[in-house]
Fold:
Amino acid sequence: MAQTLAVETHGLTKRYSTGVLAVNNLDLRVRAGEVYGFLGPNGAGKTTTLRLLSGLLHPTSGTAIVAGAAPGTPASLARLGAMVETPAFYPYLSGRDNLRVVARYGSVPTSRIDPVLKLVDLTDRARYKFKTYSTGMKQRLGVAAALLKAPDLLILDEPTSGLDPQGTIEMRALIKELKQGGRTVLLSSHLLNEVELTCDRVGVIAKGKLVAEGTVDELRARSGGSALLIRATPLDQARRLLEALLKPDQVRVESGALLVSVDPSQAASINRRLVSDGVDVSELRVSEQSLEDVFLELTETPQSPHPNPPPQAGEGNGRPAGGGK
Amino acid sequence: MIASFRAENLKTRKRWANWILIGILLAWILLLTYLTLFLVVTLSPKSIQGPVPASVLKRRLFPENFVPTVLGASASIGAAIMLIFGALSTASEFGWLTVQTILIQKPTRATVLGGKLLALAAATLLVSVLMFAAAAVASYAAVTLDGSSSAWPSGEVMLQAFGALLLQLAVWTAFGAFLGIAFRSAAAAIGGGLTYLFVGEALLGSLLRNTPVVKEVLKFLPGINGGAINGAFPVTIRDTAASTQLVSAGRGVVTLLVYLVVFTVFSLLIFQRRDVGGS
Structure:
């Protein structure tokens, strides 16, 4: 059954006047009602794509349909709420006055201002000038402005950028809340952990091209799926045993532990074999391949020769090497 | 367009920098143009006599010369202030990146800029009224304090003078707004605009005024044309150093109207076509 698309691009390309090819023949399909994670390293073309979808940039070639109309047209913008790159507001105006300005441009009744301020938890600070806001408050005001029109499609560019851990958790909760009522959310990020926790589907962009698309599980499966992490003593004996039992390329040592690429259902038999051969097993668990591994593989970023064992979902900052905005 | 105009009005009204600019303009007129000259000619010792007697010089501040005095201020400090005002209005949007916040809302780019230009026009009207009122109050105060009598210009002359003031201030505001959009930087727009105003027009215009080639070029410049309009109004004390006008007042009006249209159209064209963000 054909699904309604909130965003659809065909061969979307943007080459800047400097010659930089920021977006290269991009075919993107975001289904209505989903939270779509747009993932890529810094400089991959995420923000340029979002600017193209918002009508801020003119494409060099290709087409796009955003919320049922061409980007940047009043028909598209009327159903679109967006925060692209950084929340940009007038520093000399209060948070509330900034929303009044945005509401006037969008012909939105000012009665919408209080509910969105409440939603992003800024009611108490609404009378303060924007220039006095913390990074987290600025991000939340940006989301509030994007929500003023009660849009069908919400585009958020790195919404947790610069937030402290508490702010990040709150923003993720807010994004999940925003999905209620059938709203589509297109979320760009270079934080893998964030995408993993909030998105239904993920598109990975590298050097301006979409290199993979699917659910997080689909992307993991595509890159080898899960493995067993085993901490055993003596380690060399355990490795030789497992290499003899399996294939040598299925076993590797990472940070003092063995990472064995097998179906997790073989965990019990492997444990029995190790113990019966006099190996002490102190830890044996399924190690899901993290989205970070998938991401690095897809974006062709060279891996460290001795990476740490992949963190479990919810652990670590999920930031790729060299990341940071 | 009305929605954009209302949004722009809110921003313009609440921006302190705008009120400071207006304050500087009014202070200049009241303090430098009127009060300083009044005190100098009133309090200077009788032993110090210039080529023009103080009693005659003082009449420059009286209602009979109200129109040339206020138009003279519009050509110098008025032009500079309105150029800065226009440049700040557009360039700041790029500096703060608020231009992208605006353009993600519903209106088209043409509507957004149309609203901004309308708001600038309304602000220019307000500044013109304030300049006129401040100069009128100062003229009245000067003649009253002096105990002299002086007739106000006729209603028709006042109306024409107000139109001339509004047109000149509008052209400089539009020029500033155009520079702000073209440079996308307040510093570059203001610096470039003021350099043109004070070096390009004022300095070169006076130093090379009689050079044949330069003279022909000067005839097309907004400041020279504004000066021609101002020079057409009657004044009881003509500055002996004042140079003759290069163009007629009628041509001056037409030239300034053309500039107003050109700056507006060019601003629209650039704003409409240019990418926002990225490199």
Remarks:
- Chain B has a mean pLDDT of 89.
- Residues 109-146 of chain B form the longest helix (38 residues).
